[in-house]
Amino acid sequence: MSTPKRIAGCLSMLTVASAALAQAPQFGQPIAPADIAPWDISIGPDGVGLPPGRGTAIEGEAIYVAYCQACHGEKGIGPSNALAGALVGGIGTLAPDKIPVKTVGSFWPYATTLFDYIRRAMPFQESKSLTADELYAVSAYILHLNGIIGATDVLDAHSLPNVRMPNQDGFIPFPRNPK
Amino acid sequence: MIRKINRDPVEPAAGNGILSRRIFLEGTLAVGATGTGLSCASAEPLAVQPWMKTPGSGFVGYGQPSPFESKVVKAFLPSPATPGVGASRTPLHLLEGMITPSGLHFERSHSGIPDIDPDQHRLVIHGLVKRPLVFTVEALSRYPMQSRIAFIECGGNSQVLNAPQAQPLNATAIHGLVGCSEWTGVPVSTLLDEAGVEPAARWVIAEGADAAAMSRSIPIAKAMDDALVCFYQNGERVRPSNGYPVRLLLPGFEGNMNVKWLRRLKLTAGPAMSKDETSKYTILLKDEKAWQFVFPMEVKSFIARPSPGLALRGPGFYEISGLAWSGNGSIRQVEVSADGGQSWAPAALQGPILPKAPVRFRAAWQWNGGPAVLQSRATDDTGMVQPTRAQFAAERGLRGVYHYNAIASWRIDEMGEVNNVYA
């Protein structure tokens, strides 16, 4: 083997080696957004992610009685399971020196959170089983029990993010988070 | 090497019997001369026990603690209607050192512990990224890994100390929602870099594969800093109760954000405002406002021994042993008091002292048999000092539930019984 050929061979090996070194390991598989959709259950406070569908409190009552009442109590008051918590009431109890009763009505800042949470985590024994219409309806029922919307007000992807919650302005940033 | 035994009396370092920590630093104690030893009658003659006379048992595939240690278990209240909802607590008053055995690490679950087949599990990264990606567990395990020792503390730990009257509870019931493991996994930044973060992405919504699909929003800066996707806990695969097959570790941040059974990271411009970052894990202050997105678990300590249920057996020498940690950095100092905070002396800190990891502290105490109130006060390397309960309440009131980190107090009575008190 002549010297120039040897040098060329070494150079090409060097090129291969440095290319291999420069490449970070990449083991993620590309996936199309449509294929992620069944998992993408996040709903922002702006309503992004809300599915098509609609419901009212009147329609939601039967769903609440069937799936929610056993733990959360009749009309969202007096839950039988302490971990379930009350869903209704407590407005005014955040005032200084009062014992706070933190419910959807008195404390939750966004109505979208209610829909998001019911869809991902409820009913407890069978989460992710309600249809979009059922989710809008039962959300409407809980909001109506809190006096936030009317019995026949329609909740859908447009109206839900526009529901103004009584405690929407109740939150301030923690002053000592790391920069 | 000949070890020099120090026979000098151990000097008091603070009131009501707190001794100098040089006992721990020098490893010697002048017993008798200072009266620090327990006075004992002569011992019985030694017996040769049966286990020295016949061969012991054979090997087992996965070792278990001695049957004599059957009381060292997690503490939890049964919830038959909703099993696996709520929390079980690390039995802190029965453990030593800084590492929590994996099977005794506290757990907080919102819809039970899922039984996940690792071959079917996926982690997806999407949202404001150039390349949405999905990872199998096997794929994740091929990346270069990192290990770090870190505590995880539930945001609701010690919340019972907000109550107007001190409750008759022990160290485990009060402080047991904290644990520490050596966690091993892949930096989240590695995976986000591969997906290509869009400039508009400010938050990462993390979601679990449990029935509650537990979800929290994390600032992108934390995700890119020291966040890990963990497979291993104390050298073995993460336990199901702690997130098998993969969980998120956000060192120093509120436990709830360290999402278990991690299945999804969605990059967004704003936070999701999920149930657990609005209706829970926010801190209602004295006025009607609540702090939201309270990330670091601030500097804290408690005394594990003596503590309620571990009564003192007569006057004499006792080691005070406890844990201190800070989600903002390393523990610089722990002080102890036996007179309810009137006087303090520095405790010995057991190394290694690591950022966002608990430190075991030890102090020497000569109990004179009289009433005493034991306290510990930690300082971290940012200079933050654990507040008194009064200071804590003055800043935020006692309605906040979460992130309680004030100085805790054990009262010792003349019988040696130990009780939770406010002092």
Automatic annotation (TrEMBL), chain A:
Q: Which InterPro entries match?
A: Cyt_c-like_dom, Cyt_c-like_dom_sf, Cytochrome_c-type_DH
Keywords, sorted A to Z: Heme, Iron, Metal-binding, Signal
Q: Name one GO molecular function term.
A: metal ion binding
| SUPFAM superfamilies reported in the protein's UniProt record | Cytochrome c (SSF46626)
Please report the stretch or stretches of sequence annotated as the Cytochrome c domain.
55-146
Q: Which residues form the signal peptide?
A: 1-22
Q: What is this protein called?
A: Cytochrome c
From TrEMBL, chain B:
Q: Which cofactors, if any, are listed as required?
A: Mo-molybdopterin
Enumerate the spans annotated as Moybdenum cofactor oxidoreductase dimerisation domain: 295-407
Looking up Pfam families in the UniProt record yields: Mo-co_dimer (PF03404), Oxidored_molyb (PF00174)
Gene Ontology biological-process entries: sulfur compound metabolic process
Report a single Gene Ontology molecular function.
Answer: sulfite dehydrogenase activity
Domain Oxidoreductase molybdopterin-binding per the UniProt entry, residue ranges: 110-272
Does the keyword section mention Nucleotidyltransferase?
no
Fetch the InterPro entries from UniProt.
Ig_E-set, MoCF_OxRdtse_dimer, Mopterin_OxRdtase_euk, OxRdtase_Mopterin-bd_dom, OxRdtase_Mopterin-bd_sf, Sulfite_DH_SoxC, TAT_signal
Name the source's superkingdom.
Answer: Bacteria
This chain's protein is named: Sulfite dehydrogenase
